Amino acid sequence: MSTAIIGAGVMGETLLSGLVRAGRRVDQLMVGEKRAERARELEERYGVAVVSNREATAKADTVALVVKPQDMADVLDEIAPDLRAGQLLVSLAAGITTAFIESRVPEGVAVVRVMPNTPALVDEGMAAISPGSHCDESHLAEAESLMASTGKVIRIPEKQMDAVTAISGSGPAYIFFVVESMIEAGVHLGLPRSTATELVVQTLVGSAAMLRETGTHPVVLREQVTSPGGTTASALRELEIHKVRAAFLAAMEAARNRSRELAEGS
Ligand SMILES: NC(=O)C1=CN([C@@H]2O[C@H](COP(=O)(O)OP(=O)(O)OC[C@H]3O[C@@H](n4cnc5c(N)ncnc54)[C@H](O)[C@@H]3O)[C@@H](O)[C@H]2O)C=CC1
Ligand SMILES: O=C(O)[C@@H]1CCC=N1
Questions:
Q1: Residue 224 C-alpha to ligand 2 middle, in angstroms?
Q2: Topology of domain 171-263, per CATH?
Q3: What Cα–Cα distance (Å) separates residue 44 from each residue in 8, 10, 37, 41, 190?
Q4: Most buried of 89, 105, 138, 236 (most Cβ within 10 A)?
C-alpha cells in the first residue's frame, strides 16, 4: 500500500518519520511539499521521493493531507482530478470537516478525518479518527493503522472532533507551558536551570507513568501528594486563588471555538 503525504511541515514530517520507523518501505511513500528547500531536506533525511501533489495523488493508495486548514480548499481543488472512488483520503487538518472535503472531491472517495498530536514524534501520539460518509471498515482500519504507527488511536464521532482538537491536538502545548512555568519557578527559587529542568521533566514523566500504569483517578493521586497542613496544600491553594482550573477551561473552550472557526474558513 503506497501512501502520499501532502504538506510536510511539523506534523507531516512527524507522520512520515513514524511510518519510516514503523518499517514502511520508503519506496512506498511519497511527499508533496510546496517549499523547495523543505522538500530537499526531506529527500536527504529520509530518501523519500518528493513529487507534485497531483503525481502523489495519482500514484498513492492513501493520501494524507497535512497542510494548514486555510490551504485545504486550494489543495483539494488541485488534486481532485487525480482522486478516484474507493481511494482513501485522510485529513489531519484542524477544523476541516469530512463534509467539506467530500464536497470538493469525486463521489466515492473515502475520507477520514484525523486529529493527531506531536508526541507522535516519539511514538507516544494520541490520534482520534472519524469516518466520512463513503468509508467502509477497511478504510477506517487503514487510517487507524497509519496513525497507530506513531501511538494510540481512538475512533470518535466527528461531532467530538473540535473538542478533541482542543484537548489532545493542542494539548502538548499546554503541558509544555506548565513545564516551562515550573522550570522558571525553580530558577526563581534559586535552583540552577539545569537542575530545575531535570526535576520538572522527570516529575512530568513519573506522574504520566503513574496515571497510565495505575489507572488511578488524578484526584486520588493528587490527594496522595497533599499531606495535611503541608507544602502541596499551600501551593494548590494558590493555584485555586489564581483560578488556574478556570483558566484551563477557558483556554480549551477557546481552542474548541477556534477549531469551529477554521471550519468556516477564517
Ligand atoms: N502541529 C501540530 O501539533 C498539529 C497540526 N495539525 C494539523 O496539521 C496541519 C499542518 O500543521 P503543521 O504541520 O503544524 O503546519 P506547517 O506549517 O508546519 O506545515 C504545513 C506544510 O504544508 C506545506 N504546504 C502548504 N501549501 C501546500 C501545497 N499547496 N502543497 C504542498 N504543501 C503545501 C507548507 O509548505 C508546510 O511545509 C494543520 O492542518 C494542522 O491543523 C493537527 C494536529 C496537531
Ligand atoms: O494549533 C493548531 O491549530 C494545530 C491543531 C492542533 C494543534 N496544532
A1: 34
A2: ProC C-terminal domain-like fold (1.10.3730)
A3: 14, 16, 11, 5, 44
A4: 89
